Structures are given as C-alpha cells and as structure tokens.
Amino acid sequence: MTYLDHAATTPVLPEVLAAVTEQMGRVGNASSLHAGGRAARRAAEQARERLAEALGARPSEVLFTGGGTESDNLALKGLYWARREADSRRRRLVVSPAEHHAVLDSAEWLAKHEGAEVTWLRLEPSGRVTPEALAEALGDGSDVAVASVMWANNEIGTVSDVAALAAVAHAAGVPLHTDAVQAVGQVPVDFAASGVDALTLTGHKLGGPMGAGALLLRRDAECTPLLHGGGQERDVRSGTLDVPVIVGLAVAATAAVTGREERAGRLAALRDRLVAGVLEQVPDAQLNGAPLDDVVAGGPGRLPGNAHLSFPGAEGDALLMLLDARGIECSTGSACSAGVARPSHVLTAVGADAARARSSLRFSLGHTSTDADVDALLAVIGPVVERARSAGMGRR
Amino acid sequence: MRVLAAMSGGVDSAVAAALAVDAGHDVTGVHLALSPDRQTLRSGARGCCSVEDAHDARRVADELGIPFYVWDLADRFREDVVEDFVAEYAAGRTPNPCLRCNERIKFTAVLDRARALGFDAVVTGHHARLADGRLRRSVDAAKDQSYVLGVLTAEQLAGARFPLGSMTKERVRAIAAERGFAVATKPDSHDVCFIPDGDTRGFLTRRLGTAPGPVVDAATGTTVGSHEGTHGFTVGQRRGLGLAVGDQRPRYVLSIEPVTRTVTVGTAELTGVDVVRTGPPTWTGPAPALPLRAEVQLRAHGTPVGCTVEAAPDGGLVLTLARTERGVAPGQSAVLYAPDPVHGDLVLGQAPVAR
C-alpha cells in the first residue's frame, strides 16, 4: 500500500504508542487527590509543559481538547461571545473563505444563531491572506469580535505570514486565531513569537493519537466555555483529562518539532520529484496553490509535504477510485458526510472554476514517506488519468 | 471479472454484491446519490437516497471488504427521471420513473461510466433472471421486477448482472441474516423515491401549479365537477374524483386532455380496452418478426394478458388483447413477454402506451 494521505492522518510514532500504552495501564483521575490521582496529574502536567515548550507557549496557555474541531469551535465561539459581552458592538467575524469547515461552519453558525456578521477575507490566487487584505477587512476594528486565518491550508498547503497578520489584527485591537493543525511539524510554529491569541493543533497529524488536541490561548484572552462542568482546563474547558492521549500528544509534538527541519527538507525533495514526475506524464496537469519554492516570512510558503494538482477532463473521485484500486491512497480534498464529492471550497475560494475544482487530487507526504511511494504513484498516474478522462466528468 | 455493484443500502443490493464477491469477481461498491437535498434520516420505509441509506450500503461494503464510493448522479437523475416524470404528467400521461431510472441512470450513466473506468458489468439487486443475454421473470412472482427492466436493450443487458433472479425475497433476507447484515430486516422500499412523503399529487402541484378545469361525463357530455390540474389524475383512477353524479354509479377517469384541461370520466364498462396502440418499441434482443403472439403487461404488478402484436405504419405497435383490460394509462410501458413456465417468461421488449 502506498500511503499519500498524511494530511488526513499520519501513522502513530512508535514512541507515542509506547507512552500511551504505558499510561493507559495506570488508574487515576487527574482531578483526584489521592496518590493515583496525583500520578495522573503529574503525567498530564508534564505533558502540558512539554507541549508548551515544543510550541513556544507557556504551560498555562495550553488547553487540552478533543481535537482540532473542538479547538476551532472553542476559539471562534468562545472569543466571539466573550468579546461581544465586553462590548456589544463587536459582532463581526473576519475569516478566510479557505478555512477548514470547523472554522467556516462555526462562523456561519454564529451568524445564523448568535447575531454575528461574517466578513470574508480576500485571498491571493495562491490562497494566502496578506496583511493588507486583513487590514482592509478589519477597518478600525471596533466592531470586530475575532479574526481567524489558518497558518497553512489543509488542501493546497499555502502558508500565510501569521506573525504579520497578528500585528495587523492587534493594531486594530482584534484578537487573531489561527488553525495550525497542518503547520505544526512542517513549518516553524512558535506561539509567543507569532503573537497570535489562539492557536489550534491536533495530535493525529503529528504521529500522535486521534482525539487529542489543544488550543493554545493567551492568558489575557477572554474565552467563554463551550463545555461546562468541572472546569479542569482554566475553567474554559471541562471534562476529565484524557491523560493517556494527552501524554501521547506531547510526545508526538516534541518529536514533530525536534525533527522538523530534517524531515521538511526530505519531504520537500520527495514532493518536488512527485510533482515533476506527474507533470512529465500529464503535461496539462495544473499545480494548485503556491509555487513549490515559494517563500513567506523567510520560511516555506507551501507545506513541504503537500502536492495538490488538477487533471483537466478527469473527475477527482474517478481518479481516486482508480488509484485506490492500484493500492495508492490519496484524497480529493473534501467530502461531505454522505461521501458525495463536492467541488473543493478552497479551490473555489481562490477562483478556480467548478470543473477544475472537481478534477483535483491532494497527495500529502509525511514521516514514513519514501522514494518508493513516489515511484509507485509515478508508475500508474499516466494511464490512470487517461482512463479517468475517458470516463469524462460525469456531466453533460 | 471486474464488476461494479450498485448498492442502495437495501437488502437486495447488499446480497447481490455479496453473491458477486462469492462468485470470485473483483467487486467495487457504489452508492448512487440521486437527490440534491439528501435527508439525513430515512422517513418511513421509502427511499434509497438518505445519508442513512448510504451508511447502510457502506457498512455492507466494509463487511465484504470491497472498496466503496458514492457517485453523485443528482443532476442526471433530475434531468432524466424527475423532469421526465413531471413533463409526462403535464402532458396527461402516467410515467413509470423506476423504468426510466433503469433505462437512463443505472444502465446508461452508471454502466457507461463503469465501462470507461474498466469494469465489465454492473451488478444490481433487481429480481429478474438474466442468462445468456435473455431477460426473464424472477422465480419470485410477487417480487418480479422484469417489468421495470423491460426497456433495456441487448447492449445494456450485456453489461448487467442480476444475481437474485433465481431466488425468492425470503431467501435473500435469509442470506442477509446468515451473513449478519444489519439490513436483513430493513423494510422494502416502495413508491417514488424522490417523493418521500408519498404525496404525488402534492409534488406535482408544487412543480406545475394549479390549472383548474372541468370534469366531464363521457355519456352525457355534461360537466360533473372541477379539478385543480390534470396532473392529479391517471387513466383508470376511481378514488379522489370528488364528483356528485346523480346515478350513484362509480366513475373512472377515461382520458386526460391537458390542452383544454378536460378530465373525462365514465362508468366501469367504458374503461375497457381491447386494442392498445403504442409508440416505437425497444427490444431486449433481435427485433422479432411481426405479427407475433405474446403476453403483455400494461403496468407494474399488472396481470399479463395474451395478445397479438402487429406493426403500425407510424413505427409503433398495435396490440390486440385476448381479453378486455381496464384503466390502460398512456405513458405506461406495455412490456411484452413470451410465456415460459419452465425457464421463466422471456422479456421481449416494450413500447409506451400511446394516447
């Protein structure tokens, strides 16, 4: 099997498996006062400190959550409610239209049920949000509750200059949230240096367990809880701490960050070979997102493991099926709960027409990727595209 | 053989896919998303188009260990089946959308795409026998679906596989239960899948609006009632006419004239038909020599009746029936069979009943 879908989820690291398994064998609620509870508490707090250290945050800024979706919901809704409560004029959400659905749907829910108004950010053709576009959308900022711009896009891999965006937001007196689920471990992510107020990350994109995420939230950021109960996480998030997966998350984040530079160089080289090889066999394929060698703020302007291509005249789900039948696993980007392929909202947001948006595939590389994976794809991509084209676009 | 199993989420297509796997084929499952606004949950026993149905199909595919995909054919289905259904009613005819879906969606859009992607055939859970290119009734007479497949051509049938034709529905459910499929006891779907509340007249009124007209008695030529649109009626219909006729004898719809919006009704003896004229036929194999003695079925679940089949000068057929039939509705298919009590009645072809 050739796994080219690391952006969906990536294999668990052996050291994570060992740490989670060991912790799972122990009894103890981290909120309990006896010895077992204290041991669990110690493991959770050590994990919090390790995670904070890996990401340039203070331990008190780490809120453990159930994953990226919960962190995004908590940031958008929690910051919106708290900011509006402090000043009822703050009803605007300034959001990139290329965000993950956890952000998009939270913003739209707030607009539908909580009186919010969404201002969609203008995107560069690469999908990047520029500081100028953010400044333009914020205005004087007095009516804005929160802005949200992802660090790196999950479909096309475009990286934005989050530090510059945070500076613009703060000049307008507005907090900035960033979804860094794809960025952590692939590009340098330092919470304090970036200046953002809230940052989403999740374990299973890093070689950690599913169901473990975090929201890094500045101490001075007021955030209304979504989940009420024991108040375990700074009274912003309640629920018994899931110590085994929290431990696993911290181990994964440390590994992802310490090995990042070497891995990023290796993945970028593999990715460049993958894209060049595909374009050689399918000359009219189109690379979506930023150029492979793009630079932003002195770092990669595109995630090193990301290749996102459109194959004109072929339908993404036909390509996916044909590749799957040949043992190659990749993604069309987005699917609804019924599994019906929809044109990617990200490509649509950067101005691609529906046909291009429907004809795209995402290949994403990760820590287990090798030259053999790229070779396996290049061995079949030409005939697969030809066959999918003969099946047409399924439309008249 | 590489086969594509169309999986609705029901028990029949689940077992058909399982039998294809057992037969040693390389099977891929697809669920056809046919409705643009897919309901999350089934309402009642209808449907094959909810997210829950897609989930049921996926569960079976996962248990069988076969790849599974959802194909979005909502646009094609709307154009080729739903709009055809509405246009036929607007023209005063009574369409059969299941037959249209088999003709244009399952065995054109899906089969063409499957062949282009390298599959040899499409497997479905239809209850009909198909061997050596010959389409026959199912052994389960009550569940036989050969009527809604009668429109398929030899070329289409060459790419079709119906593994359930030689078994009863009871046996299909037993196989599903033996395999532990959760859909083993799922109720049969019925009615029109794109009208989930079952209110066909309401659906057509939403699409076509109201267009009032008279209800005229055939015997006297007098207006005996009024209606809100001819699309609310089918030839042969008795219920829901809302008439007040002095003689208390039941009235049936005899004809529908959409231009003048006239619905003509009459007593039972006036509904009889001995000769049926049709539009151009399609054949499941080589066109037979005419005239021909055969049996014809004039509606889904109708009782077949003997007939002679002759060619009409306009390219259609003239069917002279061995006994009088009542309520023969224009737009329905007249499916022709060669009776065969041993191997199952052979489907010869079909032609649409003309006005």
UniProtKB/TrEMBL annotation, chain A:
GO terms for molecular function: cysteine desulfurase activity; iron-sulfur cluster binding; metal ion binding. Belongs to the class-V pyridoxal-phosphate-dependent aminotransferase family. NifS/IscS subfamily. SUPFAM superfamilies: PLP-dependent transferases. It holds the Pfam family Aminotran_5. Its EC number is 2.8.1.7. This is cysteine desulfurase. Residues 2-377 form the Aminotransferase class V domain. Its cofactor is pyridoxal 5'-phosphate. It comes from Geodermatophilus tzadiensis. Coiled coil: none annotated. It catalyses: (sulfur carrier)-H + L-cysteine = (sulfur carrier)-SH + L-alanine. Keywords: Iron, Iron-sulfur, Metal-binding, Pyridoxal phosphate, Transferase.
From TrEMBL, chain B:
It is an enzyme of class 2 (transferase). Its main location: cytoplasm. It catalyses: S-sulfanyl-L-cysteinyl-[protein] + uridine(34) in tRNA + AH2 + ATP = 2-thiouridine(34) in tRNA + L-cysteinyl-[protein] + A + AMP + diphosphate + H(+). Keywords: ATP-binding, Cytoplasm, Disulfide bond, Methyltransferase, Nucleotide-binding, RNA-binding, Transferase, tRNA processing, tRNA-binding. GO terms for cellular component: cytoplasm. It comes from the Bacteria. CDD domains: MnmA_TRMU-like (cd01998). The record marks H126, Q332 as: Interaction with tRNA. It is found in: Cytoplasm. Its EC number is 2.8.1.13. GO terms for molecular function: ATP binding; methyltransferase activity; tRNA binding; tRNA-uridine 2-sulfurtransferase activity. Residues 143-145 are annotated as: Interaction with tRNA. Residues 202-266 form the tRNA-specific 2-thiouridylase MnmA-like central domain. One of its GO terms (biological process) is tRNA wobble position uridine thiolation. ATP binds at A6, M7, S8, G9, G10, V11, D12, S13, L32, G125. Residues 277-351 form the tRNA-specific 2-thiouridylase MnmA-like C-terminal domain. HAMAP family: tRNA_thiouridyl_MnmA (MF_00144). Catalyzes the 2-thiolation of uridine at the wobble position (U34) of tRNA, leading to the formation of s(2)U34. This is tRNA-specific 2-thiouridylase MnmA. It comes from Geodermatophilus tzadiensis. The lineage of its organism: Bacteria, Bacillati, Actinomycetota, Actinomycetes, Geodermatophilales.
